[in-house]
Amino acid sequence: MKILILLTFLVYTYSHAEDSDDNTTELLDEKFRLNGLSTQDAFGSAREKALSATVRLVRNDKLIALGGIVDPSGYVLTKASDCVGAREAQTSDGKTYSLKIKKRDEKTDLALYQLISDKDSFPVVQWGDENSTRTGSWVLSSFSKLEEIRVGVASGKPRKIGREGGVIGVILGADGDSVGGVRISEVVPQAAAYKAGLLKGDVITSVDGRKLKSRDQVAKIVGKNDPGDVVRIQIKREDEVKFFNVTLGHRSVTFDLFNRNLQMSGPVSKRKDNFPMILQHDLPLPKNSMGGPLFNLNGECIGFNIARVDRVTIYALPAEQVRETLSKFLGK
Amino acid sequence: MRGYPIFLFGVFFLRLFLPAEENQGKAWELPVPSNPKELLEIQDRLQSLLPKVQGALVSIEANDGAGSGIIVSEDGLVLTAAHVIGKSNKKMFVRLPNGKRAPAVSLGGSELSDAGMLKITKAGPWPFVEMAPKGSSQLGDWCFGLGHPGGFDKERGLVVRLGRVIGRKDETMRTDSRLLGGDSGGPLFDFNGRVIAIHSRISKKPDENFHVPVESYLANWEFFQNETLFTMEKMEKGGFLGVACKEAKGGVRVVETIKETPAESSGLQPDDLLVSIDEQKIDNREELTILIASKNPGDEIKLEYQRNGKSMSSKIKLGKRPDE
């Protein structure tokens, strides 16, 4: 009887699908979609491994990053610049641990934390060979609540990501010797120069004491500094000479304000540049879920998610790079 | 449920059992993969198709923007999005995955569906891919997208994304294959390596994106090749019939005739199957709109249609599209 019911049901749904040549939108059941629950289930033990070796890093009851357990005694690796002030970590079994920062590495933006516990049997990531992951290979990571995973594919070539210098957040006009400097034609709202008090129409005459006459010179001298550094800018406003101290911003964050694509992306990582090597993938993870491990279909860790770049792009540090930094952290 | 008509089982065997036999072992044709082995089959299939199709992907460089496209003929016809070409007969460049540039010129398209076409003006042969025939993609099909988001980047190369067809409505295909604005015009392939759609628009949800189905190009092939871009403005100012239609086999089916329009005064009725206009066969709704609005208000068309299986024909003087 059960079979009969099932069969008639199938016949019904199947003929319904075929006869519908009208324009009402028929949508694929959410659970069958790329990140639907049925698809997630197919990942089997890889899914379990991803969930059990990932932790949530929390500050003031808010998720600020994910991390991956790399030692049974509770060592956790994560994205350093996202988890400043992390006090607690939650594991997928619902337990909460106090956290202690051990090390940070500027080059890779990784940090090592320790879960405070007597336990010596935390489930750890099993390292895999990132070279086995090619464009089009499945990748997966734990999703924010550690109840689900997110899946996708390696989407571009592994590569080095160059440094982006700091910016003051203005758009400069054409080079003009007549004004003895470079005129600001637009000030990006809420960005560095705006906060320091620079205005549209101001003429930049020097940066950190160096006289400037072209747009390229301004960009070059400012760009030698990093986001967060302070530069001293001299300007001419009508007949007045003024000085401003400007705390530089991140290029991507500043100019994303102008980019419609990225406005639709949701928040992206502040530090998303200057990595020695990255794997690119397309997992739908928010900014506060960077820092966690990335797995292949076998459940082996092939990297750590290190930057959300835009709505479809995440960079992960390859496992080899992560392990090298971990060895350095542990003094091996 | 007891005593359910037996003929349904016949239907069942015809429709489900036989196709299931044929599809045996193809993980990407199951309703959903259920284990890592099937996922691996999907991955292997994707990775075996990539080298066969990626050579035909181009990055499009125009003065006022960039996008992607896919070569579909040896002599260099490229499918892209209407909003990537902007207008007809515009000079631009395409860039192949190896970084080589070639000159191209925009042909036609339609702002209704966002279908666009251009042609490489340098002599081929060019690497090209096959287009899927009309009606071959179904809800739930696995698909993969290629593109050059943000323009050509040699270090990164082209970008690959995987997803499934999650919906279809009017002139649009919806997938959960992820997209960024700069992917516009790039191809979406089925798991046979054939183009099924072209990337068009993103939504606020990263897992719901919109593509122009290949049917739009197939139905309007000559029109697009003829260097004509069908614009919204043309639609508003061109000829007007006054029917709401739905897609159907062998034409488009009338759902409703609008009051006080040429459609109503000529006696068209719901359920009539519109077959051709001025001897030009109608393949889909977009083509119907293009054929009608490419004429001017006051022009006469010869419309052939079927009512209850009987062929009918009438000459209709087109009107003007109402303002609202």
Describe this structure in words.
The complex is a heterodimer of chains A (332) and B (324). Chain A is of the alpha+beta class. Chain A has helices at residues 2-19, 37-42, 44-52, 192-196, 215-223, 251-256, 260-263, 319-329; strands at 26-27, 54-59, 62-71, 75-79, 88-91, 96-105, 110-116, 138-142, 149-161, 166-167, 170-172, 182-187, 203-207, 210-211, 230-237, 240-247, 249-250, 275-281, 293-295, 301-310, 313-318. Chain A has 2 domains: 44-162 and 274-329, Thrombin, subunit H, CATH 2.40.10; 166-253, Pdz3 Domain. Chain A is 20% helix and 37% strand. Chain B is α+β, with helices and mostly antiparallel strands and 324 residues long. Chain B has 8 helices and 21 strands. In chain B, the strands form 4 sheets. In chain B, strands 1-2-3-6-5-4 form a 6-stranded antiparallel β-barrel. A 6-stranded antiparallel β-barrel of chain B has the order 7-8-9-12-11-10. In chain B, strands 15, 16, 17, 18, 19 and 20 form a 6-stranded antiparallel beta sheet that branches. In chain B, a hairpin with a 5-residue loop joins strand 4 and strand 5. The radius of gyration of chain B is 22 Å and the shape is globular. Chains A and B meet through helix 1, strand 1, helix 2, helix 3 and strand 9 of A and helix 1, helix 2, strand 8 and strand 15 of B.
